[in-house]
């Protein structure tokens, strides 16, 4: 494999050709308004010859496969084909604000856990996904994200065009809710670990004969929720801080762009930007099913509730503990 840089000459295949004008390009400058229409090309580094009757558009189409958010990608299943730098935002704020850049990675469909509504497909079909630069780590030091240049520099050291990513990944969005239609993937180790643990603790399909108490015992310790998840107050969830707002607090993002809020009165402004965090749902408004209002508070992983934190006590009612006599024990209190 080769690492490409600006100015290199590379052999590529034209996949799509679009006729563009200034009304279709959000990034066009005012000085370019009077310029004529131009053409935008979508290229592929796959230059293997196709048969004469092959439909190139169908072979290379990236959004014909529906991906399953929360599914884990195997090591070396993602190949980096392009690096797009971060984009500065024109604001009056004194702080440096920008949209993180991203890598375009190609994944063969044979490596993907697909949703049930996919039609039969070629296992060698390529799916392009977006790997944002804020999805490489669970935690970013302040100096690494203070400017777009520092985040880009870090990302360029980690990601190389033409290379395969040697670690596991996770699908964050299916792509249907993304502006450019590309599914989003992440390399955050903590989210991947939670997804794998959730798969192990997944509730069996046949729970018709189980009691309510039995069903509670097999709920996952932590959830990676999506808009289709049946959330409840008290649920432990795992996400990452996507944005901070001095008026409200920290916004926490989950699968398929589901978002919750840690209010500033609950310490939301103390959450580091882009950090992976554990939270508990403290309030939930699901009147509008498409965009439920979720209030959260941050918790430490060691404080999670559930079956994994139930401790067996070696004392029982009637035992003497120091200078007191233990009369009663329950899950919330000790009466002495």
Automatic annotation (TrEMBL):
Organism phylogeny: Eukaryota, Sar, Stramenopiles, Ochrophyta, Bacillariophyta
Species in which this protein is naturally found: Eucampia antarctica
Protein's recorded name: S1 motif domain-containing protein
């Amino acid at each position: 494999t080769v690492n490409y840089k600006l100015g290199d000459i590379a052999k590529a295949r034209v996949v799509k050709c679009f006729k563009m004008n200034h009304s279709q390009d959000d990034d066009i400058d005012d000085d370019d308004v009077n310029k004529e229409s131009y053409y935008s090309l979508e290229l592929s580094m796959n230059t293997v010859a196709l048969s004469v009757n092959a439909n190139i558009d169908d072979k290379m189409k990236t959004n014909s496969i529906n991906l399953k958010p929360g599914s884990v990608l195997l090591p070396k299943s993602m190949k980096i084909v392009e690096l797009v730098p971060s984009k500065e935002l024109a604001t009056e704020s004194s702080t440096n604000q920008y949209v993180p850049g991203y890598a375009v990675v190609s994944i063969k469909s044979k490596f993907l856990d697909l949703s049930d509504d996919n039609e039969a497909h070629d296992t060698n079909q390529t799916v392009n996904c977006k790997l944002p630069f804020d999805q490489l780590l669970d935690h970013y030091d302040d100096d690494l994200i203070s400017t777009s240049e520092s985040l880009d520099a870090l990302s360029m050291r980690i990601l190389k065009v033409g290379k395969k990513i040697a670690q596991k990944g996770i699908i964050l969005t299916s792509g249907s809710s993304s502006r450019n239609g590309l599914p989003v993937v992440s390399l955050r180790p903590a989210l991947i670990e939670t997804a794998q643990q959730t798969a192990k603790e997944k509730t069996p399909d046949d729970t018709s004969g189980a009691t309510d108490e039995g069903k509670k015992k097999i709920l996952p310790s932590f959830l990676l929720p999506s808009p289709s998840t049946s959330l409840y107050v008290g649920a432990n969830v795992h996400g990452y801080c996507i944005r901070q707002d001095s008026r409200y607090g920290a916004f926490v993002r989950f699968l398929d762009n589901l978002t919750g809020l840690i209010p500033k009165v609950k310490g939301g402004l103390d959450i580091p930007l882009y950090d992976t965090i554990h939270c508990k749902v403290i309030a939930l408004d699901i009147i509008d099913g498409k965009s439920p209002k979720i209030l959260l508070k941050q918790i430490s992983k060691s404080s999670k509730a559930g079956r994994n934190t139930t401790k067996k006590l070696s004392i029982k009612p009637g035992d003497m503990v120091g200078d007191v006599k233990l009369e009663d024990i329950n899950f919330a209190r000790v009466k002495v």
